[in-house]
């Protein structure tokens, strides 16, 4: 049943993202989605932490917000590290996530161009 909650939430989140992207021009649509998703993740984090509703958290946080934006999960990870007073780890995580994600995109582009040409 857990998989169903996550899958349904993910489908719903992806649909919302798609509809917003149709109505708001790039890159502002992406920016809005990432900021809004992170804001909603903050609300959900407190809401579900105080209610012990595992299925609701899976549906909304993992499913809906995961389908809507993965930046919200990254942002929550950073907040949790700061709450645990792991400041250096949080900073390293931020830098590594951004740098390696961008490098991975370049690597994927390069590798694909090499393979198809």
Secondary structure layout plus pairing:
Blueprint lengths: L1 H22 L4 H22 L4 H15 L2 H13 L3 H30 L1
Helix pairs in contact: 1-3, 2-3, 2-4, 4-5
Describe the structure.
The radius of gyration is 16 Å and the shape is globular. The model has no long low-confidence stretch (mean pLDDT 91). The chain has helices at residues 2-23, 28-49, 54-68, 71-83, 87-116. It has 5 helices and no strands. It is mostly helical. It has a domain at 2-69.
* Percent of residues in beta strands: under 5%
Percent range of helical residues: over 70%
What is the CA-CA span between the terminal residues?
A: 45 Å
Q: Main sheet?
A: none
SS elements, strand count: 0
Structural class: mainly alpha
Principal-axis shape: globular
* Rg computed from alpha carbons, rounded to a whole number of angstroms: 16 Å
- Give the number of helices: 5
- H and E order: HHHHH
Mean pLDDT: 91
Give start-end ranges of low-pLDDT stretches: none
Features:
117 residues; mainly alpha; 5 helices; 0% strand
Compose a concise summary of this entry:
It is built from five helices and no strands. With 117 residues, it is mainly alpha-helical.
């Amino acid at each position: 049943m857990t998989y169903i909650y996550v899958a349904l939430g993910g489908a719903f989140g992806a649909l919302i993202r798609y509809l917003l992207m149709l109505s708001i021009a790039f890159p502002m649509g992406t920016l809005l989605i990432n900021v809004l998703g992170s804001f909603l993740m903050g609300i959900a984090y407190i809401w579900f932490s105080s209610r012990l509703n595992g299925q609701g958290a899976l549906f909304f946080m993992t499913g809906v917000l995961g389908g809507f934006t993965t930046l919200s999960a990254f942002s929550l990870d950073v907040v949790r590290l700061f709450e645990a007073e792991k400041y250096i780890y949080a900073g390293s995580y931020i830098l590594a996530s951004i740098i390696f994600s961008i490098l991975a995109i370049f690597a994927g582009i390069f590798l694909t161009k090499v393979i198809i040409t």
